[in-house]
Design brief:
Number of helices: 2
CATH superfamily: Jelly Rolls
Order of helices and strands: EHHEEEEEEEEEEEEEEEEEEEEEEE
Shape: globular
């Protein structure tokens, strides 16, 4: 079985009046991984699709969806995959790619059949998926965790010591506009992306994971002078509009996958929002 949700874009002027329930309805994706299914959310921010595939005893195949208006899902799209679960395989038009935990796969425009499978149904793969429109074909590419461009940032003194791994980037894959990577915080560190920023030329999505069920992340969003927050549990995702800050603080350390789509694929293209500016 497969499911897709559709989220409309919201004007920041309107979001100023949202209560917690409205914020969660528009920006929080509570169910990413559904056993034996593919579950996707289609966002009207840069037409990004966010979701997960969690095959059990049998494989699951990515079908066409009405919001894309195409005969097959990848007809006008590219796809990024990061496996945060047990070992699995992604098969693209008959070509199989083994994807152990925390390895990634870039799937280029035009792939007609994308099939996800777990090596062990008792320890299923959890394929996190992000997709954006694409205008040219590019080769499928497997990116191992050890091959990702790795950055070590922050410090224990500021509670943000973290490792960033850049998987799908313009200088390492043939990506059109999709940029995707992962950040993991060290034990004792809880802040991500602080000082925060906006990037008006692209949107972003966060998937929080490796978070104990008893803990939560406070994900901060909104205009820099009109901040709001979402309480996010393990394996939930947040849609971050182009006009919104995006940073978080957890009740323990955690990891998250970030993905961006829009006009500019340069990782450093952002507009800082210093702490003293926030309200």
């Amino acid at each position: 079985m497969t499911a897709i949700d559709e989220r409309q874009a919201a004007h920041p002027r309107d979001v100023r009046r949202y209560d917690s329930e409205a914020l969660r309805e528009d920006f929080l994706i509570e169910r990413i991984f559904m056993p034996g299914e593919i579950a996707l959310t289609y966002s009207h921010y840069d037409r990004m699709v966010v979701g997960g595939a969690m095959p059990l005893a049998g494989p699951v195949t990515l079908p066409p969806y009405a919001p894309t208006g195409t005969p097959f899902f990848m007809a006008r799209r590219e796809l990024g995959v990061i496996n945060i679960g047990g070992a699995g395989t992604v098969t693209i038009d008959g070509e199989a790619f083994a994807l152990p935990q925390l390895d990634a796969l870039y799937v280029g425009l035009g792939a007609k059949e994308v099939v996800f499978a777990s090596a062990d149904a008792a320890n299923p793969a959890k394929f996190y998926l992000t997709s954006a429109p694409a205008h040219r074909e590019a080769p499928h590419q497997l990116i191992r965790q050890t091959d990702a461009n790795t950055l070590h940032l922050g410090a224990a003194e500021t509670s943000n010591k973290r490792t960033i791994r850049q998987y799908i980037m313009p200088n390492s894959t043939g990506t059109n506009q999709l940029v995707m990577g992962m950040t993991a915080l060290e034990p004792g560190s809880v802040w991500n992306s602080m000082p925060c920023h906006t990037h008006t030329r692209r949107m972003e999505a966060y998937l929080y994971f490796n978070l104990d069920p008893a803990h939560r992340v406070f994900h901060f969003m909104g205009e820099p002078t009109q901040t709001r927050h979402l309480l996010v549990a393990n394996e939930q995702a947040v849609i971050s509009p182009n006009w919104s800050i995006h940073c978080g603080c957890g009740t323990s350390n955690y990891a998250f996958v970030w993905a961006m789509a829009g006009d500019n694929v340069e990782f450093t293209d952002m507009d800082p929002a210093p702490v003293e500016m926030l309200r």
